[in-house]
Amino acid sequence: MKKQFLDSGKIVGTHGIKGEVRIEPWCDSPEFLCAFKTLYLDDEGVNKIKVKSRPHKNITLCKIEGVDTIEAAERLRGRIIYIDRADVKLDEGVHFVQDLIGLEVRDFDTGEAYGVLTDVLRTGANDVYEITRDGKKYLAPVIDEVVREINTDGGYVLITPMKGIFDDEN
Fold it and tell me: What pTM, to 2 d.p., does this model score?
C-alpha cells in the first residue's frame, strides 16, 4: 500500500530572525517543494502547517504560519517534513521514489527475478536503480533501453539489462 504522506525534506536550520527555516529538499528540486502551501510534521497528516516558501540555491526557505521568532524556528531543527500525495499530480510515467523502493526487478523477456529495487541514485544524466540480490548490489541506468515497464501497483519493474550488469561480461 502506498503511503499517503511522503517524507520530502528536513529542517536543517533557521534563516534570519523572523522564524524562517531552511529545508533540505528530498524531492526533485527546491522549487518543487515551494509549490506546497501546506506541509506536515508527521507521516499521518496530524501536524499540518501552513507555509510560504521560496527556493534559495539548493534549499527551500520556508515561513511557517505561527513561527515568528528564531527561537521557535530553532525548535523545529531536525524535523522531517511531509507532503500529502493527494496534493501532487505526477506526469505520466513519473513516480515517487518511495513507491519504487521495494519493487521486484524482473527480466522483460523471461520474467527472471533479478532482485529488489533498493535505491534510486541521482547522477545528473539519468537516474540509476540500485538492485539488491543475495546481499549484492547491482546498478542499472534508468534509460528507455533498460527500464521497459514500471508497475507500482503490481509491485514490479521490468528491465532489459545491459551486458555486464548482472555478470562479469564486458
Answer: 0.78
Inside any domain, residue 169: no
Say whether both 78 and 105 belong to one domain: no
Q: What is the DSSP letter of 125?
A: S
The secondary element (H helix, E strand) that includes residue 40 is: strand 38-40
Residue 8 sits at the vertex; the CA angle it makes with 22 and 139, to the nearest 5 degrees, is 120
List residues bridging with 9 in a β-sheet: 25, 81
Domain presence at residue 56: yes
**Structural domain harbouring 139:** 97-159
| pLDDT, tens digit (0-9, with 9 covering 90-100), for 34-46 | 999 999 999 999 9
Model pLDDT for residues 52-96, shown as the tens digit of each residue: 999 999 999 999 999 999 999 999 999 999 999 999 988 888 888
